[in-house]
Amino acid sequence: MKATTMTLLKIILKNEVFPALGCTEPTAVAYAASIAAEKLDGPVEELRITVDPGVFKNGMAVTVPNTGGEHGNLIAGVIGALIGQPERRMKILEGATPDIIARAKTLITTGHASVECDSTQLGLRIDVTVRNSQEAVRAVMQQNHTNLVLLEKNGETLFSKQEEDPTRLPDYKDALREMSIAELVDAAEQMDAEDEAYIREGLAMNQKIAAEGLQLHKVGYYLADLKQKKFLQDDVCSSSKIMTAAAADGRMGGLSFPVMSSGGSGNQGIVAILVPYNVGKWFEIDEPTIMRSIALSHLINSYIKCYTGSLSPICGCAIAAGVGAAAAIVYQQEGKDMAKIALAINNLISDLGGMLCDGAKGGCSLKVASSTDSAIRSAYMALNDHGITSVEGFVGKTPEETIQNLSRISDIGMSKVDETMIKIMMDKGK
After folding, report:
1. pTM of the predicted model, to two decimals?
2. Domains in the chain, please, with CATH?
3. Average pLDDT in the 332-345 region?
4. pLDDT score for 164
């Protein structure tokens, strides 16, 4: 699929921005399992899941919606298989019932369901096989959370796409990777009524979970409490951090409300959407400009993920969604001022470029709050023509070069981070 500035936004909104109930990794495992189970004649009696290190790490500690507080890829996968309704896609867990949860727990406790990490996999990969006494069905997702590449029943292929080198990007991402930030601004400005309606749908979705998450007495609640007690000022920084942290609290805490993702991540969708919106409303920016800025935020988030990968050792909320939000804030006030947008991007990456991803869990709300704070600060400095330059650290001569440098640090310099992180997390479980 070849992308141009006229079609790029639609392609990204279709492939990278979608509603998801719960953390996208265990939800994707549940979705893959539902695809396999739907083709199985008779009940699911056994389920085996193999995932790449990134999916394994992200699914270990996060709460799965509609499960009464259960955690992890395994319970999500078994529930997805027992629901067996792939038409629900990334909202598959809406179909969970007490009976299904009880049956899922029985399959797990009796050893009839398992999840393993395949450390040889370099990109996102979910491989699920469901069985009963008569049949076996296998479903494989690769490269992104909803990209089915193989469906087999009793060894016979029902559907297949060529399984490409996991380091090779899909065509639309390959085209996106070659674009400049200036071209992404042009693409955002091509937003039509259909695109805007979809962006508004995501905004409403994420605002809803932010309001619900504030009731959980977690990070968002305590930030609001700090504001109430005058430790934080009642300003755009505080209100934005409270909103995004509360939304992440709700999502990581397993609330049964979908989130509009960005770049395949719900937490990144929270930052990419809510930060530009809340800042834009604070400064009384007109609605069409705010919507275009959110479109730009999505585009930049997905652009950076083309370099860092779908699941990276470094926090995507910080160095992908936060960058998109910072650029969006500058765009709201200065339009296509590429010098200021470049400064905002370099500022944020210089600030948060080393933030580690240690999987999806409640603590992500802290990182979301940090990303929100840095996005606003980075944009403000850029709007006043101040920014980190190529004289310092790994910052490049252009924002594109800075992003490429960050990719090198993630891919080469931090190549052992996920392996080490997963071992630490598994050792704690022992």
Report:
1. 0.91
2. 20-160 (3.30.1330), 179-429 (1.10.4100)
3. 98
4. 59
